[in-house]
Amino acid sequence: MDFLYTYETLKLEFPLVNPEKAAFTILGVPFDGTTSFKAGARFGPTLIRHATLNLESYVLDYDVDISQLPIADIGDVAVVAGDPRKTADRVRETVEELMKANPKTMPILLGGEHSQTLGAVEALKPASYVVFDAHFDLRDSYEDNPYNHACVARRISELGVKEAMFGIRSGTREEVEYAEENGIQWVHARDYDFDAFVELVKPLPEPVYLSIDIDAFDLSLVPSTGTPEAGGLSFWDVVEAIEWLVEKKRIVGFDIMEVAGENLGDVTALTAAKLLFYFIGAMGRDI
Ligand SMILES: [Mn+2]
């Protein structure tokens, strides 16, 4: 793990295990080098870890105490300032190394800009990419950079990965056309419900990479994020979708991205931390 810095204070407050023995391995990606509007995603991983202090490790709904599960937190990737491609290379190499050491672990990225999801997807080679996001992220290039956060789903689609998107409510005509031409299915936030989710995700090939851009949620839940948009999904919308995926599909990687902010206890990080516990709790029912 050459590219990591791992301050003790930046880790989850659990009895953690070695990544070679972990069912879940947390990796922070504190990158915000191409943020367009609201800065602070570099603090996302730290803010999410801190927000977990507020939560019970017992996930009520599942009767699972996640502090009893084998979780590793390997710290944060040392980012290459201003360079999303080089930073994503470090994410890819770190995840590759991790999977070599423990092919059974579930890597969980906490971010940080959505651009960094590309590195994890390149390492894990899923057949499908299921994403909750306010935005398509299907631009060919943005601000002269094909690895900008606004291009991540385009780069992933070019790898031949099937995509389904939920919570979309912002994009360009070109992105809509690209989605149509390339068989990328999506559900507008306004039309989102559980049945619409299942209909699109059911036929997708496995394994699946699940990415949560925190801006998929309604703005009231996630005020601190790089490109906030009104009119998003509810917390339970996303939790129910995660539960279905965990039960029905093989998931190879998970991330919660675009959490920003500057203050401990930020609402956005609290939303992200709770979601993290639901994901680990849902997966942990079978461990
Ligand atoms: Mn987004």
TrEMBL record:
Q: Which UniProt keywords apply?
A: Hydrolase, Manganese, Metal-binding
- Keyword Hydrolase on this protein? yes
Bound cofactor: record note: Binds 2 manganese ions per subunit.
What's an example GO BP annotation here?
A: putrescine biosynthetic process from arginine, via agmatine
InterPro entries assigned to the protein according to its UniProt record, in alphabetical order: Agmatinase-rel (IPR005925), Ureohydrolase (IPR006035), Ureohydrolase_dom_sf (IPR023696)
Which residues of this UniProt protein bind Mn(2+)? 114, 133, 135, 137, 213, 215
In this record, what's one Pfam family? Arginase
Q: Does the keyword Metal-binding apply?
A: yes
Cofactor(s) essential for the protein: Mn(2+)
GO molecular function terms listed in the Swiss-Prot or TrEMBL record:
agmatinase activity; metal ion binding
What family is this protein classified in? Belongs to the arginase family. Agmatinase subfamily.
**What name has this protein been given in UniProt?**
Agmatinase
Q: Which organism is it from?
A: Thermococcus siculi
